[in-house]
Amino acid sequence: MTGYRSNEINGDDGRVAPSEGLQIIGITAGYESNSKVLSNIDLAIAKSRVMVLAGPNGCGKSTLIKVVARHLKPESGTVLLDGCDIQSISRDQYARKVAYVPQSIDFSSQLTVEELVSLGRNPHQSWWSWSENHQDREAVEQALTRAGLTDLAKRPLTNLSGGEQKRALIAVALAQQPSYILMDEPIAHLDFKHQLSLLTMISELKEKGIGVLLVLHDLNMIDRIADDIAFLKPSQAGATTLFSAGDKESVLTSRAVSEIFEVNVDIYADKSRQGRHFSIESI
Amino acid sequence: MIVKVVLLLTVAVVALIINLSVGDVSISPQSALQAVFSPNSAQQVSASDIEIIRQIRLPRVLVAMTVGAALSVAGYLLQSLSRNHLADPYLTGVSSGAGVLVALAVSANVNFEFVPLIAFVGGLGASIIVGGLARSARGLSVTRLLLAGVGLSAICGGIITLVVTLGGDPVRAQGIFFWLAGGISGKTWEEFLPAAGYTLVGCLGALVLSKQIRLLSVGTEQAKSLGVNVDVVQWAILFVAVLLSGSAVSLAGIVGFAGLVAPHLSRNLFGRDERVQIFTSAVIGMILVMLSDLLARSLVEGQELPLSTLLSLIGGPFFLLLVARQKAESL
User: Fold this and answer.
1) CATH code (residue A139)
2) Could you tell me the domains of chain B?
């Protein structure tokens, strides 16, 4: 199967880059100058949609998220935020539009949940000032409510369970009031109940008009949450390329899964939630 | 909280008054205060007492306060930077690096005004070496930071001895050694004022950086995502910490552990607000060094112990206690 480009930007046909959305264009990246992890990745994340990034372990999903989050400079290629190169805008400007939810942070910090979530307002405030205006307080309150953390607002971070920690990290992102949220394996290490409650939260983000790019592994969870899917696959040459990307129905097929993950998968209709159920049959 | 801060300030004022009153010549607290605030109308205070207070004890206690505040806030900043409560200017080699250049400057008779800045350059050089050795792909390793600090301190100690001994003047050499061990007797206003100015600037700088310190406390990755220019902020924190350490070293040589004890007490007693922590660290540091100095000059009659002796005796066991309490994996 050849690589699929979800959106031809500035391509040979001369079309102009769309001014809205998060556009990943020809990204090649790695951690050392001579070893590429990703090669020539193109993707487009739109507002009000959830795009899941999936692929085998170590294929560079987190690396791609890091490039989009500006934590890693790509060797070549650009990321456009609503038409602007993200390297050309200030950190504050960027953080007002794009929030990144890391897998974990330093939870040994002495802060309370509310104080952590208040840090999400930093991109909207001057760097040295502690003063919070009405808008800041309202955003923090809303973020705590939407993450179901109102009762835990005064609790120290050191006393949170794994699920509460994840929700607190998402609440920080919500307090930023961004247009896009990037999440690296948000449901890893969570039990089923917390996995589902997190996926519900992500669906709500979409309804609020936020575009979401997240890394997930479980096919059933992917089918449940994704609007669009981008599959990454390591190539023969070593660096990972985009295997396929597009809306869920066209990309998430048993053939694609078996080619990328080297497993066989059977897909059953799941009438209870009008979706599909994926069963891995053999390795 | 306000009650606690008021109580702390009261302790500081009491310590200040005791330091002014106690000495070879005992002067009542009332007379000491009169000598400070209204020497011309203090009819019951002898001229010699006024002289002792204004020319000897007041500069000395102000030096102790400046050293305490500078070391404590520097320790607070270094602890925030390394995200470990075992860091301070002494253990990270910053003080020793500053000490080398101060020893050179004093040997060369450099003007007092420039000594804190020269100490800053020495401290900065030391922090770049130690920071470079402690930096790994996963960030700053505290074990490496402390080991590199110990190694550099040893080298600096050797260089200082060499510089002072080769200076040729045995009287001056003795003076420099006494100063390096934390001798703050005989400090003049000329020596005090520049260092106090830099300390004030450093403490204000720490307060300005306090919000960024909070952002860094949850990890550099999250801080970056919230718009923090992590590299610039970390350098700024280091610069301010080194400026403060340099000021302290230029006044009182290489004294350890004040920068370790005060921030720790402040974090445990005065809540989570970084601004309050910085302020109370400074005040606790002042009290600690004032009381150490009081003990240093009153424990042995007719003799004066260097400040570093007392602070090591108080701070050393405190450091070992912290090591014992800190889990092995977090080192």
Assistant:
1) 3.40.50.300
2) 70-330 (1.10.3470.10)
Is B225–A100 a contact, with Cβ atoms under 8 angstroms apart?
A: yes
Phi and psi (nearest 5°) for B179?
-65, -40
Query: Which of A214-223, B166-175, B316-325 has maximum average pLDDT?
Result: A214-223
Residue in chain B closest to A177 (alpha carbons) equals: B226
Q: Specify whether the CB–CB gap between A263 and A219 falls below 8 A.
A: no
Residue A141 lies in a domain: yes
Separation between Cα atoms, residue B232 and residue B240, nearest integer Å: 12
Tell whether A112 lies on the interface with B, counting CB pairs under 8 A. Answer: yes
pLDDT tens string B265-307: 999 899 889 999 999 999 999 999 999 999 988 887 777 788 8
| Residue-range definition of the domain harbouring residue A193 | 22-282
- DSSP category for residue A112: B
Angle ∠(A171,A106,B324) on CA atoms, nearest 5: 145
Q: How confident is the model at residue A119 (pLDDT cuts 50, 70, 90)?
A: very high
Contact B227 A102 (CB under 8 A): no
DSSP state at residue A28: E
Residues in chain B closer than 8 A to A95 (CB atoms): 225-227
B222 near A CB under 8 A? yes
Residue A167 burial (C-beta neighbours within 10 Å; 0-12, 13-18, 19+): buried
Residues whose CB is less than 8 angstroms from the CB of residue B219 and which lie 6 or more positions away in sequence, other chains included: A102, A105, A106
d(C-alpha B27, C-alpha B229), whole Å:
54
- Whether B114 and B175 have beta carbons less than 8 Å apart is answered as no
State the pLDDT confidence band at B137, using cuts at 50, 70 and 90. low
- Domain for residue A14, yes or no? no
Q: Is the ipTM of this complex over 0.90?
A: no
* Secondary element (H or E) of residue A250: helix A248-251
CA distance B97 to B114: 16
Does the residue A186 lie in any domain? yes
C-beta atoms of A115 and B272 within 8 A: yes
Question: Could you tell me if A216 and A187 are in contact, meaning their C-beta atoms sit under 8 angstroms apart?
Answer: yes
Choice between A103 and A152, residue whose per-residue pLDDT is larger: A152
> Smallest Cα–Cα separation from B239: which of B140, B144, B117?
B117
Q: Is A34 exposed, middle or buried (0-12, 13-18, 19+ CB in 10 A)?
A: exposed
Token pair for B167: 């200076």
Answer whether B71 touches A (CB < 8 Å). Answer: no
* Whole-angstrom distance, CA of residue B301 vs CA of residue B23: 10
Query: Can you name the residues that pair with A267 across neighbouring β-strands?
Result: A278
**In which residue are the tokens 């403490």 written?**
B203
How far apart are alpha carbons B37 and B53 in whole angstroms? 11
| Residue B116 vs residues A268, B124, B162, B247, B255: alpha-carbon distances, Å | 75, 12, 21, 5, 15
Q: How many domains does chain A fold into?
A: 1
Residue A106 belongs to a domain: yes
User: Helix or strand or coil: residue A132?
Assistant: coil
Q: Where are the alpha helices (DSSP H) in B270-306?
A: 274-298
